[in-house]
Amino acid sequence: MFWLLTSSGVLDEIGDRPVTIIAPSEEAFREFKFLDYYGVLSNPVALAEILRRHIVLGVYDAEGLIAAGTVTNLAGEQLRVWRNGGFVMVDDVTLTLPHTNQADVATFVVYGADRLI
């Protein structure tokens, strides 16, 4: 995911601000019906538009996301956060447990996602 952020220029937009990243799997990118997977990967502008939808300013643990109820992504869209049984949902996307390096928790947290937002 970080090489995508770098190649799209979105990492520069984030700068040193803390973020929560909702990282769709490679399979999620490939399964998105309206997306030319390889075309988007080679188009930094189109890639940046997609990635901005998956980044929220601020670091949220799962309970913090649920407590917020809604968060705004880097694209300026409101995302609804809710619990579905044991899962945390952002809109209709299921999140997996966050992947963090303990030293970086104050800077970023990365959740896996089963599809694109």
How would you describe this protein?
This protein has 117 residues and is of the alpha+beta class. Helices cover 33% and strands 26% of the residues. A four-stranded antiparallel beta sheet has the order 3-4-5-6, covered by helices on one side. The longest helix has 9 residues, at 44-52. The chain is globular and about 40 Å long. The mean pLDDT is 84.
Present the secondary structure layout.
Elements: H1 2-8, H2 10-14, E1 19-24, H3 26-31, H4 37-41, H5 44-52, E2 55-57, H6 62-68, E3 70-72, E4 78-84, E5 87-90, E6 93-94, E7 108-113
Parallel strand pairs: 1-7
Antiparallel strand pairs: 1-2, 3-4, 4-5, 5-6
Helix pairs in contact: 1-5
Total count of helical runs of at least 4 residues: 6
Number of strands: 7
Radius of gyration: 14 Å
Described by its quaternary structure, the protein is: single chain
Percent strand: 25-35%
- State the helical fraction: 25-40%
Q: If strands are numbered along the chain, what order do they take across the biggest sheet?
A: 3-4-5-6
Order of helices and strands: HHEHHHEHEEEEE
Low-confidence stretches: none
Summarize the main sheet. 4 strands, antiparallel
What's the quick description here?
With 117 residues, the protein is of the alpha+beta class. The chain is 33% helix and 26% strand.
Sum up the structure in keywords.
globular; alpha+beta; 3-stranded mixed sheet; 117 residues; 4-stranded antiparallel sheet
